[in-house]
Write a structure and sequence with these properties.
alpha/beta; 10-stranded mixed β-sheet; two-stranded parallel ribbon; 7 helices; 11% strand
């Protein structure tokens, strides 16, 4: 009897755990079932936070007109042109920590106002090339993707990159060199951490004349190029972070590397062109500022002149009113004198 009771109890426990409505089954059901995204206002912008909600596709039932969309930590595997066709006003899009391996051409090009995109820690083998030709895309994060095709894809481009990249994160992307991005005059922060940069040269950085910070944390760089990059970027005022070089130019085998880079006219030309673009922009800004100053000065003078004319006009109007009153008063007195009755005149004469 005791043995039968124990069996019943054990069966009850297993039923409660593996039953269709409770236990592990219900727990798995709750994990499979996406939660609702939260609508928020972020820095005067509207957006949705859908992070960690087990979505396997971009939800298509949310409000349009949003500018911020956080879809991180989900299970999205691919993106198509239809993924964001309802959300073309996006400025900040976060897709890190998903399972994205395929992105259809044209997925992001419809997001004309996109300024920042985070595709970190997915399964990408390259960057969607359309991202290189977006007018407002400033920050691009693709860390944690094995970008084995990136170098070849960028080398095959037939036109220069036009996206105004300012921040570019290529950490842990399995690159052995900096891809041929060409001239990126706006780029000021570059992260190439956690890579084996065995084919890195200083020439590959020449087109980044505005670079202010580059992070090499836990990356391997050949010793001669390492020292050259450290010295050259320091001369240009950039912060070289976590670059550990062993040895230096005093080693005999580093002399050819230094001489080759010192006389590479093509790389130097890229740097000069980059500087020319930046200086041209600065000149345009200065010229625009000067014209704005002149226009503001003229406007201020015009306002003062109009105010002066108005005050002068008001003074003239008051003077005219005053003279009109004086003339009216004089006429009134004259009229009173002209109409004195004969009786009053006789009385005055007798007196």
């Amino acid at each position: 009897m005791l043995r039968l009771t124990s069996c019943v109890a054990i069966f009850g426990i297993f039923s409660s755990v593996f039953g269709p409505t409770t236990g592990i089954s219900s727990t798995m059901d709750s994990l499979e079932r996406p939660k609702k995204c939260s609508y928020e206002r972020i820095a005067k912008m509207s957006g949705y936070t859908c992070s960690g909600m087990n979505y396997n596709a971009v939800p298509d039932n949310l409000k349009t007109g949003i500018e911020v969309f956080d879809l991180s930590n989900n299970r999205i595997r691919e993106l198509s042109r239809k993924s964001f066709e309802r959300y073309t006003d996006l400025k900040y899009l976060y897709l890190f920590e998903n399972l994205i391996m395929e992105i259809e051409n044209g997925t992001f090009s419809q997001l004309r106002g996109l300024e920042a995109l985070d595709l970190s820690h997915n399964g990408l083998s390259t960057i969607p090339l359309e991202l290189l030709f977006m007018d407002r895309l400033r920050n691009l994060y693709v860390a944690g993707n094995k970008l084995s095709r990136l170098d070849a894809d960028i080398a095959s481009l037939t036109r220069p990159i036009t996206s105004p990249f300012q921040i570019l994160n290529l950490a842990d992307t399995f690159i052995s060199r900096i891809p041929k991005f060409g001239i990126l005059p706006d780029l000021w922060q570059l992260n190439v951490s956690d890579n084996t940069l065995s084919h890195l040269t200083f020439d590959q950085l020449q087109g980044f004349c505005g670079l202010r910070s580059i992070d090499f944390n836990n990356s391997y760089v050949p010793v001669c190029e390492c020292r050259l990059i450290d010295v050259k970027l320091f001369e240009r005022g950039a912060d070289v972070l976590n670059l550990n070089c062993v040895g230096g130019f005093h080693q005999p085998n580093c002399a050819p590397v230094f001489d080759q880079n010192a006389t590479d006219t093509q790389a130097a030309l890229d740097y000069v062109r980059c500087l020319g673009i930046r200086q041209g922009r600065e000149a345009d800004v200065e010229s625009r500022s000067r014209w704005l100053y002149i226009a503001a000065s003229l406007l201020g003078f015009l306002i003062i002149f109009i105010a002066f004319l108005y005050c002068l006009h008001r003074k003239n109007v008051e003077d005219i009113k005053r003279k009109t009153k004086m003339i009216s008063r004089a006429n009134s007195v004259a009229q009173q004198n002209d109409f004195i009755s004969p009786e009053k005149l006789i009385t005055n004469e007798k007196v």
